Structure to design on (869 residues):
């Protein structure tokens, strides 16, 4: 992975003297679900507060043609030696040593934007990842284009309203479908489990007659409305 | 592909490699090949009942492994148009191998059974792995059979361990190699060296230097190559064609070490050296392994000439040791079972002879054995199922003959029990007046058995319809068998009832393809005999009797049924393989119990098997299901 990033960067710098030609985010439109590339992402951070905490690790996989393509994945630990990460080290298992092996933040983030290629991003409780990622991209690269985000934590109950999961967490749904994370609180492993859940959602969506990204987005809006009504 | 340490792979690649490592054949593959696999795979999801692959999809391009859930194969029965499950593929198993290798569409609809995840590999990556990884290629081409070899290797090495502590192979090598080996110097012409071998009728000659240190070896096998390839003139010095640096062991090494070396390197001779590296002898494979053959022949002869019952009793432990040895030398379970039966037959004959010496009833009779002994399928755990077929001398009634034979039979049954043949709980023994009958009485007995088939009769079918003569004239039994077979062949109703009965014992697989444990016995155990072997034995019996096959042995019956075209040859082989494997696992379990001095039992806990054995056992049970399906279709059950 590290080597491939280095090769890519040197090529990128030759062809992109400044960051002028970043890929543009694509909106949720008529792209067929079966052909669109969807990125499923998970971040590990130093804490829960986007205003003061920082991203430590980014793990992501891509879904295309209803399959998780392992040739197309992203697994990086950022180089943030200036951060105090003692707080969350226990949860993530990323200590200072592992961090220093990571990348120059700017290079890694550049690579991430290129790798995302403007495709829609899915995450579990995506609001969290979205805030952290957008803040990081803005601060480090001055990049402020917003990707289309979809929350897997919403997609699951929208398509499986009757599932008795005993909770709304990633673990609850994984357990419900008998999935096993290879290791928890590891960005890439969590992204993988989230992507597996996404495959289950996509399978159901196609059966329910939802064939495009905009239909999927519509379904979510509808579900949100419904669940708000239920609260009253 | 270059090898790289594990921590250089991304987490998700590592996780998939870890998954692969737990399953054959991937567990035998190199790290680099596993990494290639994991990096090029795609993960797909199929909900319950989703079609994964269909014959309509065209030529198969991708290779799949089940990562979670199950896949079932579905074919439409041409008779009733209903979909039937033909196979199931569970965790860690691959598909569709035959179609992928044959570059054709699959012939079976593959459907998800429950929520299922599969890893898939596209055609290019599959081809790369196929060409670079030997274990992978072997598996793709030979499927489960390639794994079967590994199981057999495993059984073999297990038995080797126990042999290490037994007498014969434990002995120091110099006991086998005391003979003066034939030697010559390196400049000896080939012709002269071969003449030396010929004069001394040996298979090898050692080439030594002036200090009698071995520098090469020349064997009959080398001679064959030399002649076939004409690689050197016979006048050339032997050093040109010898194998240099022959394998040597010190004299204090044991025979087991030598046997292992030979097995490992596929050569047939080992030189024995003294502490100064001088040659003192040579041991050939034949020297070592003929010991075992001598054991068998010798043991049979010792049993056959024993003069006292207690000698026979003490010889039984030698039989068990021999079984160990046979397994270690790679004898398949079918051979071993036959050897056990042979030795059991010799024992039974000797017991009968000893009893006749003491008290001869002076009646001509044939000693019959039934059930597993009749089928020549006995293992070490065996009970008596026997009977007597007698002829009635002029001037005597059948009851008078019986009166004379019964005390004799009782004594024989008792003696056999002392030799380890447990008394039959159902009293299926020659001392039972109902089973000590004349030819006419037996015939009547079978007429009743076949025409008035009660449920009780059917339970006995597995015993009395597998019948063999062990002692006495064979003629009367052949006559009886002919009548019985003809009668069964004509009686479709009886066949159908037999078939129904054969389906009572289902292979221990649940709908979900995990093991179904035995209802009796310890929790979480399988009864290898009743749940594993019986479905084969009983189904095959129905086909055999219906087609006039006289053999009682299950494997022989399968062979003959294949010859008659009743079974497809491929099916027949698969069933023989599966049956033998369950038998092998059962025998290994018996040997283990013997070693631990525990009572023999047919129950095993599949959790105690290694994953490969477990999978193959499951595959074998699946074959039993297929055989039963054939029975169901044939008799429309």
């Amino acid at each position: 992975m590290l080597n491939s990033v280095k090769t890519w960067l040197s090529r990128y710098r030759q062809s992109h003297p400044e960051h002028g030609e970043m890929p543009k985010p694509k909106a949720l439109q008529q792209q067929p679900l079966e052909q669109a590339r969807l990125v499923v992402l998970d971040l590990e951070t130093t804490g829960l507060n986007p205003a003061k905490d920082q991203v430590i690790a980014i793990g992501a996989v891509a879904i295309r043609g209803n399959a998780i393509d392992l040739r197309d994945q992203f697994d990086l630990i950022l180089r943030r030696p200036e951060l105090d990460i003692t707080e969350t080290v226990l949860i993530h298992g990323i200590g200072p040593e592992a961090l220093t092996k990571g990348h120059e933040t700017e290079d890694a983030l550049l690579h991430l934007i290129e790798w995302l290629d403007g495709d829609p991003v899915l995450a579990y409780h995506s609001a969290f990842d979205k805030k952290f990622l957008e803040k990081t991209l803005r601060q480090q690269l001055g990049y402020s284009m917003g990707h289309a985000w979809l929350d897997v934590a919403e997609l699951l109950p929208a398509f499986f309203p009757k599932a008795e999961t005993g909770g709304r967490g990633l673990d609850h749904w994984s357990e419900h479908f008998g999935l096993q994370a290879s290791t928890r609180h590891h960005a890439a492993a969590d992204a993988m489990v989230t992507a597996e859940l996404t495959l289950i959602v996509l399978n159901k969506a196609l059966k329910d007659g939802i064939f495009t990204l905009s239909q999927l987005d519509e379904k979510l809006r509808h579900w949100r409305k419904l669940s708000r009504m239920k609260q009253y | 592909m270059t090898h790289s340490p594990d921590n250089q792979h991304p987490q998700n690649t590592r996780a998939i490699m870890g998954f692969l490592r737990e399953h054959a054949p991937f567990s035998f593959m190199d790290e680099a090949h596993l990494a290639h696999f994991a990096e090029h795979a795609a993960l797909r999801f199929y909900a319950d009942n989703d079609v994964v692959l269909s014959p309509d999809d065209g030529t198969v391009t991708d290779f799949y492994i089940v990562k979670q859930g199950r896949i079932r194969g579905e074919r439409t029965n041409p008779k009733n148009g209903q979909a039937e499950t033909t196979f199931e593929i569970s965790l860690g198993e691959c598909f569709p191998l035959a179609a992928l290798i044959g570059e054709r569409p699959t012939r079976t609809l593959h459907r998800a059974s429950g929520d299922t995840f599969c890893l898939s590999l596209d055609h290019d990556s599959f081809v790369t792995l196929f060409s670079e990884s030997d274990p992978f290629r072997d598996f793709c081409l030979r499927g489960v059979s390639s794994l079967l070899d590994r199981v057999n290797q495993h059984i073999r090495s297990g038995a080797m361990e126990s042999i290490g502590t037994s007498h014969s192979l434990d002995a120091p090598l110099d006991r086998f190699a005391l003979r003066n080996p034939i030697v010559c110097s390196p400049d000896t012409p080939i012709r002269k060296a071969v003449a030396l071998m010929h004069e001394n009728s040996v298979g090898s000659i050692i080439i030594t230097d002036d200090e009698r240190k071995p520098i090469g070896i020349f064997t009959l096998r080398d001679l064959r190559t030399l002649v076939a390839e004409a690689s050197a003139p016979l006048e050339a010095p032997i050093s040109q064609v010898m194998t240099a640096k022959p394998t040597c062991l010190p004299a204090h090494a044991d025979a087991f070490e030598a046997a292992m070396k030979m097995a490992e390197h596929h050569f047939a001779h080992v030189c024995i050296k003294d502490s100064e590296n001088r040659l003192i002898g040579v041991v050939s494979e034949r020297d070592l392994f003929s010991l075992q053959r001598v054991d068998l022949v010798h043991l049979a002869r010792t049993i056959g000439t024993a003069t006292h019952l207690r000698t026979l009793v003490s010889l039984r432990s030698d039989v068990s040791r021999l079984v160990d040895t046979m397994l270690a030398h790679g004898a398949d379970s079918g051979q071993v079972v036959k050897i056990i039966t042979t030795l059991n037959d010799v024992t039974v004959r000797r017991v009968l002879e000893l009893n006749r010496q003491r008290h001869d009833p002076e009646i001509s009779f044939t000693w019959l054995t039934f059930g597993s002994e009749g089928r020549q399928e006995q293992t070490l755990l065996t009970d008596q199922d026997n009977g007597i077929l007698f002829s009635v001398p002029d001037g005597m009634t059948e009851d008078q003959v019986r009166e004379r034979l019964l005390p004799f039979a009782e004594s024989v049954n008792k003696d056999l029990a002392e030799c380890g043949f447990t008394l039959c709980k159902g009293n299926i023994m020659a001392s039972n007046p109902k089973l000590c009958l004349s030819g006419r009485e037996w015939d009547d007995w079978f007429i009743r058995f076949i025409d008035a088939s009660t449920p009780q009769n059917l339970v006995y079918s597995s015993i009395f319809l597998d019948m063999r003569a062990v002692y006495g004239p064979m003629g009367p039994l052949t006559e009886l068998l002919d009548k019985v077979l003809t009668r069964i062949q004509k009686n479709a109703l009886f066949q159908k009832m037999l078939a129904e009965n054969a389906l009572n014992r289902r292979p221990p697989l649940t709908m979900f393809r995990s093991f179904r444990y035995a209802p009796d016995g310890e929790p979480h155990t399988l009864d290898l005999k009743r749940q594993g072997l019986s479905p084969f034995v009983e189904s095959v019996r129905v086909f055999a009797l219906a087609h006039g096959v006289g053999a009682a042995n299950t494997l022989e019956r399968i062979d003959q049924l294949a010859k008659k075209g009743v079974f497809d040859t491929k099916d027949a082989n698969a069933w023989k393989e599966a049956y033998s494997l369950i038998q092998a696992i059962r025998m290994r379990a018996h040997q283990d119990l013997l070693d631990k001095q525990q009572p023999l039992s047919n129950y095993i806990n599949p959790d105690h098997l290694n994953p490969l054995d477990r999978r193959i056992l499951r595959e074998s049970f699946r074959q039993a299901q297929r055989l039963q399906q054939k029975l169901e279709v044939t008799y429309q059950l």
User: Anything to note?
Assistant: Chain A has one domain: 2-7+30-152+168-231. DSSP finds nine helices and six strands in chain A. Residues 81 and 224 of chain A are 41 Å apart (CA to CA). Chain A touches chain B through 29 residues (CB under 8 Å).
